[in-house]
């Protein structure tokens, strides 16, 4: 592992699967693990103010315990607000309403009274809720704030997905991160994953309502520890080099959208933001003193000082006729194995969606075997149950496939509980 500092406020640790490339007529694979961390002194820096909006689905399907739990969880977050923080609340179904303006600074008692007025009705139209929530975040974005939108829904939106994605692109450009929380099993995980990832955020699966309160409070605590946000990484690959896949492994494991410009989200004090990149390098016909795989361009907003940082780093290796195998760290091996397991479940779910139940079943059984080998018996049992459902009924269950997807993804997080 090597440590470099592309700019003084950060330390970047690089960990590679190779120390040298080899003259070869076939493609070579290179894994690079990147860990970005603050300097040791960052703990003394003041916490930046939060500028947040909760966007809450109040469609008919939220009636009962789901809405009650969301309301009580919102009140608990309001109890944690500091004087400098802002929190707005938007509700939506087939129309949106700003229930609590972010500058209202209501007491938990007054907020609870306002929240008790929510009545469920109508269908789920996420675009309307997102638009209203974005406007409220924009209103409170005065510079030096941590701007964040949290969407809570239990349903699918229809006909406005593309407009939602375009709004997420706007959010990314404006430095607004989106966390999308799916409650139950009827929501569209592919859509919410893509929506959040565009901004550097994450989609969260809430199977049991009892975890919603804890998850929201954890998210609030995380945002209070932001050292830098709006972190981006642009990768200029050399001719003959392809970025095959990219994955944020911690915090909040998330496959990153295809392309060479990656939105990475936020870096928290006392932790690292880690990525795993997989490069495929085509034939290299002759030895070289140095082969530049790529140049990486980092961008970030330093929350405490309201400064924007840009820096670059080149990734180069010698090319040898005979490159001896290099020792690979256990951390990199674990990350690469976990990413491969995640990709295996992705392929199995894609098989099921395309109607190839036989191939999907084989892949799920292989995934279950590998999970058992590394000691994840409970997740393996969920995978086996889905393999049986796919073999018998030629389809997966909504709940089971989300358990498999988000359970496999969670294997990647070396800091599963997040920053304290």
Features:
Rossmann fold, six-stranded mixed beta sheet, Immunoglobulin-like
Structure description:
This protein starts with a strand and ends in a 10-residue tail after the last helix. 35% of the residues lie in helices and 31% in strands. The strands form three sheets. A six-stranded antiparallel sheet has the order 1-2-4-15-12-13, with helices on one face. The chain has a six-stranded mixed sheet with strand order 7-6-5-8-9-10, sandwiched between helices. A five-stranded mixed sheet has the order 3-17-16-11-14, with no helix packed on it. It folds into three domains: 138 residues, Immunoglobulin-like, CATH 2.60.40.3670; 174 residues, von Willebrand factor, type A domain (Rossmann fold, 3-Layer(aba) Sandwich), CATH 3.40.50.410; 81 residues, no CATH class. α3 runs parallel beside α4 and α9 runs antiparallel to α10. The protein is of the alpha/beta class and 420 residues long.
- CATH topological fold name of the largest domain: Rossmann fold
Provide the succession of SSEs.
Answer: EEEEEHEEHHEHEHEHEEEEEEEHHHH
> How many strand segments?
17
How many distinct domains?
3
Helical run tally? 10
Strand order of the main beta sheet, please?
1-2-4-15-12-13
Shape: globular
* N- to C-terminal distance: 26 Å
The H-level CATH homologous superfamily of the largest domain, spelled out, is von Willebrand factor, type A domain
Q: Give the mean pLDDT.
A: 91
Gyration radius, in Å: 22 Å
Could you outline the blueprint of secondary structure elements for this entry?
Layout lengths: L1 E3 L6 E6 L4 E2 L5 E10 L12 E8 L7 H15 L6 E7 L3 E5 L7 H8 L10 H15 L5 E8 L7 H13 L3 E7 L5 H9 L4 E5 L3 H14 L2 E12 L3 E10 L3 E2 L5 E8 L4 E9 L6 E15 L4 E14 L9 H25 L2 H17 L3 H17 L4 H13 L10
Parallel strand pairs: 3-17, 5-6, 5-8, 8-9, 9-10
Antiparallel strand pairs: 1-2, 2-4, 4-15, 6-7, 11-14, 11-16, 12-13, 12-15, 16-17
């Amino acid at each position: 592992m090597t440590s470099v500092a592309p700019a003084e406020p950060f330390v970047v640790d690089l960990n590679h699967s190779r120390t040298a490339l080899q003259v070869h007529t076939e493609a070579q694979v290179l894994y690079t693990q990147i860990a970005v961390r603050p300097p040791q002194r960052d703990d003394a820096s003041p916490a930046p103010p939060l500028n947040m909006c909760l966007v809450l689905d109040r469609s008919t399907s939220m009636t009962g315990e789901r809405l009650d739990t969301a309301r009580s969880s919102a009140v608990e977050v309001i109890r944690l607000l500091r004087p400098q923080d802002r929190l707005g609340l938007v509700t939506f179904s087939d129309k949106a309403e700003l229930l609590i303006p972010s500058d209202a600074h209501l007491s938990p008692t007054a907020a609870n009274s306002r929240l008790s007025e929510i009545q469920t009705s109508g269908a789920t139209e996420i675009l309307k809720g997102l638009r209203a929530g974005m406007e409220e975040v924009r209103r409170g974005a005065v510079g030096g704030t941590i701007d964040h939108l949290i969407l809570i829904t239990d349903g699918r939106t229809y006909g406005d997905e593309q407009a939602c994605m375009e709004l997420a692109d706007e959010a990314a450009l404006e430095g607004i991160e989106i966390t999308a929380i799916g409650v139950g099993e009827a929501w569209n995980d592919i859509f919410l994953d893509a929506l959040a990832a565009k901004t550097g955020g994450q989609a969260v699966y809430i199977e049991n309502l009892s975890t919603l309160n804890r998850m929201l409070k954890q998210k609030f605590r995380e945002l209070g520890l932001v050292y830098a946000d709006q972190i981006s990484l642009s990768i200029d690959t050399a001719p003959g080099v392809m970025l095959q896949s990219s994955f944020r492994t911690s915090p909040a494991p998330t496959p990153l959208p295809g392309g060479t410009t990656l939105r990475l989200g936020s870096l928290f004090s006392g932790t690292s933001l880690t990525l795993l990149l997989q490069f495929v390098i085509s034939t290299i016909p002759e030895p070289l003193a140095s082969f530049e795989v790529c140049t990486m361009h980092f961008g970030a907003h330093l929350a405490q000082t309201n400064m924007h940082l840009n820096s670059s780093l080149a990734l180069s290796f010698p090319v040898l006729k005979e490159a001896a195998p290099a020792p690979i760290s256990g951390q990199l091996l674990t990350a690469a194995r976990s990413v491969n397991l995640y990709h295996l479940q992705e392929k199995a779910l894609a098989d099921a969606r395309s109607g190839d139940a036989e191939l999907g079943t084989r892949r799920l059984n292989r995934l279950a075997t590998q999970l058992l080998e590394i000691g994840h018996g409970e997740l393996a049992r969920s995978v086996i149950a889905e393999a049986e459902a796919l073999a018998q009924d030629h389809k997966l269950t909504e709940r089971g496939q989300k358990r498999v997807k988000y359970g496999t993804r969670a294997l990647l997080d070396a800091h599963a509980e997040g920053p304290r």
